[in-house]
Amino acid sequence: MAKKLPKVDVVIVGVGWGGGIIASELTKKGINVVGLERGKERTTEDYFMVHDELRYALRYELFQDLSKETITFRGNEKIRALPMRQYGSFLLGDGLGGAGVHWNGQTYRFLPYDFEIRSKTIERYGEKKIPKDMTIQDWGITYDELEPYFDTFEKMSGISGEENPLAGKRSNPYPTPPMKTTPALEKFKKAATNMKLHPYSRPSANLSEAYTNPDGVSRAACQYCAYCERFGCEYGAKADPVVTVIPVAKKTGKFEIRTHSNVRRILYSGNKATGVLYTDVTTGEEIEQPADLVVLTSYVFSNVRLLLMSGIGKPYNSQTGTGVIGKNYAYQVQKGAATGFFENEQFNNFAGAGALGMTLDDYNGDNFDHSNLNFIHGGSIAISQTGQRPIQNNKVPSGTATWGKEFKNQSIKYANRSLSVGGQGASMPFKHHYLDLDPTYKDAFGDPLMRITFDFEEQDRQLSMFLASKCEEIMKEMGADKIDSLKELGPYDITTYQSTHNTGGVIMGADPNTSAVNNYSQMWDMENLFVVGASAFPHNGGYNPTGTVGALAYRAAEGILTYRDKGGILV
């Protein structure tokens, strides 16, 4: 029998960006919060020896142990899903701070078009523009309504950036100036400007200068060491939950973090959550934590899986299109890249930062005419200087031998003579793309694994080739002597890293029949249960998702405070 603890005001499942923001905002109001994190404790001291590419980038020190829990994957419903035994397409964070520790720091706001995508697409092109079985829907909130929460997230994390001429209106400028512009970035900017495009410095959670946020948290400026993605930042220059919101919550004395606590079920009576059941992974003991209010703030797959295992909400049925839990899984279309090789120019490719780059949105959202194109939405196009660490980077022109003297000579020659321009394309949901519980495979506790059913569609192939052609045009204008670019988008390949931008499964909307949560991330079916994170996205945009996740978390925190005062489903 599980050990039952005294009731608390709020229990949070997963202490990353979402959990940290919720804890910070609630504890500042005097609310007692328990945060359950299945991984280990972390502080910046843990990152002091982090510049080890083999240990962190290739042996996945900060990531979930796939031998204990993984996902299963299939390209369509006709084949059996198999477990992901080693990391490839995406990386699942583990431990305090979650993916907020190992992210790059690229912090965009989704476009106004994203939040009203179905209405805006039909308004401009007619309903026939939307392919059969594409299940896009409006989010139940507009960009203008969400803008103040974007602003709050950016001020908390000290985002360094400059105005994007093709984005939604801002109430305030970025709190810190943009990062440095390197010769490679300047080359991209000049070429794009010559082409009448609109480049801007990428919004970055790697601080351009020392900064103190509204909560009084002070952080140092970025050192451009190139160890951001897959690494923690020992300087605290990269905004992550461990150095921003979690310390604020802990300082109140109202926040208790329990690490090594693997939540396995949400407990409820009728249409009210009563707490959670978790296992202390250090002892194997089962523990029941009662609470007045439960908030799921874990990663996409964990949020969906917990709801399905707990029997909360109606599971999605791909045959009928009914149900909502698991619906509208989406990924990212990251294949539209062009790599240029320069015979007579060299660049310092080994310096950089996770969000150091230059971006343009001329081909993102609905910023361009889609009338004669066989896809909707688009993607951002950018040049990144994240820093080419020595093991994982070895670009040579196509046609080069894959081993031997020629390979070695070309590797040395082009080590600092190549640049890449890439497109990050939006991912649209389809009726047959979804998440559910695997009927065969289980985790270390005997619980079913999360199963993904997904593949690229014609929408993705058309979008990918379009972005690739635009990237190639920009690279030509940049003066590359030889260019390799994408010529074809094949089936989705889960074995090759692309991005960790998984979304959907507990989607947001204005209609309980087609969405799981309202625009405060409150479950329609269980009013004292909030589900926060990218699981709420009805589709994925042409950007990294973290900025939008942060905005929705602040919106959810406001909703939780309102619910505690008034009760009921928020409107």
TrEMBL record:
Residue span, Glucose-methanol-choline oxidoreductase N-terminal domain: 221-330
Protein name from the UniProt record: GMC family oxidoreductase
Residue ranges occupied by any Glucose-methanol-choline oxidoreductase C-terminal domain in the UniProt entry: 435-553
Source organism of this protein record: Fredinandcohnia quinoae
GO molecular function, one term: flavin adenine dinucleotide binding
Keywords annotated in UniProt: FAD, Flavoprotein, Oxidoreductase
Family: Belongs to the GMC oxidoreductase family.
